[in-house]
Structure formats: C-alpha cells, structure tokens
Amino acid sequence: MKKNFLKITLVLLTFVAFSCSNDDDSSQQTTNTIADFVSANPNYSSLKAALDRAGLTSTLDGTTNYTVFAPDNAAFSAFLTSNGFASLNDVPVDVLQQVLLNHVVTGTNLSTSLTTGYVKTLATEATTSNPIDMYINTSSGVMINGDVSVTAADIMVDNGVIHAVNKVIALPTVVTFATADSTFDTLVAALTADAGFTYVSTLSSMSSPAPFTVFAPTNGAFGDLLTELGVGGLGDIPTATLEATLNTHVVAGANVLSTALTDNMTVTTLGDTFTINLGSGATFTDQNGRTGNIIVTDVQAANGVVHVIDKVILPNLN
C-alpha cells in the first residue's frame, strides 16, 4: 500500500511540474504586432518615435487588425524637412496623430486585394469627423494619392499587415484627389487653363475659406459639355465663362456630406446656385434647367469633401 501511494505521489508531482513548465513556456511566447515589428526594426525608429509621441502605439499593439502603410526613417526625414520641422517634437501632436492615422486602414488588406479606388483611413476631417479617404492606384504597382509608392508589400504580423512606403502620406486635399485620380484629368486641365486661375492654391488650403464641398465633373461630363457648346476644347470657352462655371462647382466654408443634402435644397456656390433633387437617386438642376446625377458621394479630404457628378453645372449665362 505504501509503495502504491509513493507511485501515485510521484505521478502527480510529475504532472504538476509538466503543467507548470507548459504555463511558463506559454507566458514567455513573444508577439509580433504592428507595434512590435516597428519597435524591432531600426529602419522604422522614426515611425516608432512618432507613434509614441502621438499616443498611438497601443492602438497598433492590440488585437484589432489593421493595414499600415509604413514610412521608413528616410521618409520621415524628408517629411520634416519639406514641412519646416527640425524634429518630430516640433510637429504639433494633433497634426502628428492625424498624419499617422492617415497611414492606417481597418482590416488586413494584402496587396493582392488592393484595387484602384478610394478607401477610408483612420484619420478624420476636423469639422465633421468623417473618415479621410486614401486613393489607391494599382495600374502599375501600388501608388497612394498620386505620389507615394509601396516599396515592399505583405509584411505579415499578428494583427494585420504592413506595406512599406517611400514617403510619409500627407493629409490629402481636394486637389490631391483631383490630380491623383485620372477620372478628373479634364477638371484639372480646366482648373489650370488660365495663368490667372488660383484654384489649385485655394483648394489646397487647410485654412479659411476651407473646408470646401466640391461637385467634381468627370472627364465624360466635360466631353459632353464641349459637344453641347459646339466647341473643340476647353481653350475655345471664354475664360470668364470657364471661371464662372468652375466657381459653380465649389462651396466654401462647409464640408457638406451627402447625409446633409435634402430634396429641393438650394446649393450656394462661389459662382451661382443650383438645386439638389432626391428621389430614386441624387440629381441636380442648374440655373439653365439642365440636370445631372451625383454618382459618387463623400470622398473625404482633410480640407473638404468631393461629390462626383456626370454633368458639368453651368451658371446662368444670360
């Protein structure tokens, strides 16, 4: 009986020791979150310092999955220089937070799942808290907002994926999207058609008269306008007429989201007014009785919002 008792005791002690050993191994298992990866890689020491200063390290160290477009030290150095900052400590914390959040998209988005178009980042527009968009172009590699390239894709971590990029992704303006998205090539040509036009500088502003609401005609919309007017190109439209027309697509001082549009709403722009019509879809009627469709809504920049339209809005030209 005594021998059996000793055997049972030895078995129990062995089991307990094994269990404790397993518990110790489990507690020592390392994680590889986005924050861990950034911290462990010297080439991302500036990104780590920025995340720490902005209070965002814990966000990227949790269990929620994110896609992060990660700029390296050289990218941060160029960002600081181009914006007149001597160091990261000179960047206002609220600005730094939004710039960093502009690099983060919810979910795990591998390079093979990225398509040309707009995606929402974690950054937000100041007056509405609407998520700011990122324009991704996959026609040749992966290009972001027209000037940032993915240099290394699909770095897998425990809570998502990292894509290395060659620049810090600046907070986009409405001009950023116009120049990055080929849908608006003719609009950009119109905005820059005369040396006296100041649309690019004005619509790039982050201060008053921002924010802007821009009703942006597609290339097709401008093509239809040229046919309607019986002219061969933008250069055949009198400068004053073109300027008045462009002004009629811009609302200053308000970031008007689609949820704020109402039926028979009069929209007052820099040029003239037009009317919003809500029925089976969102349409508009200009001062000449011409109607068009709002085909994409709420493309959010840091200084305003873009709604895409399929017809150029004309002011009263009488």
What report would you give on this structure?
This protein has helices at residues 2-27, 34-40, 45-54, 73-82, 93-101, 174-180, 185-191, 199-203, 219-229, 239-247; strands at 66-71, 104-106, 117-124, 131-137, 143-144, 148-157, 160-165, 212-217, 250-252, 265-268, 273-278, 282-285, 291-301, 304-309. With 318 residues, the protein is an alpha+beta fold. The chain has two domains: 34-165, Roll (FAS1 domain); 174-309, FAS1 domain, CATH 2.30.180. The strands form two sheets. The chain has a seven-stranded mixed beta sheet with strand order 2-1-7-6-5-4-3. Strands 9-8-14-13-12-11-10 form a seven-stranded mixed beta sheet. Strand 5 and strand 6 form a beta hairpin. The longest helix has 26 residues, at 2-27. It is elongated and about 75 Å long.
Q: What keywords describe this structure?
A:
alpha+beta, 2 domains, 10 helices, seven-stranded mixed β-sheet, elongated, FAS1 domain
Query: Which percent band covers the strand fraction?
Result: 25-35%
Mean pLDDT: 92
Written as H for each helix and E for each strand, in order along the chain, the element string is HHHEHHEEEEEEHHHEHHEEEEEE
CATH topology of the largest domain: FAS1 domain
How far apart, in Å, are the first and last alpha carbons? 114 Å
- Tell how many strands the DSSP assignment holds: 14
Principal-axes geometry comes out as: elongated
What is the gyration radius calculated from CA atoms? Answer: 27 Å
In total, the number of domains comes to 2
| The CATH fourth-level homologous superfamily of the largest domain | FAS1 domain
Q: Which residue ranges are poorly predicted, with pLDDT under 50 across at least 5 consecutive positions? A: 1-26
Sequence of strands across the biggest β-sheet: 2-1-7-6-5-4-3
Largest sheet: 7 strands, mixed
Total of DSSP H or I helical runs spanning 4+ residues: 10
- Structural class designation: alpha+beta
Tell me roughly what share of residues is in helical segments: 25-40%
User: Which CATH class of the largest domain?
Assistant: Mainly Beta
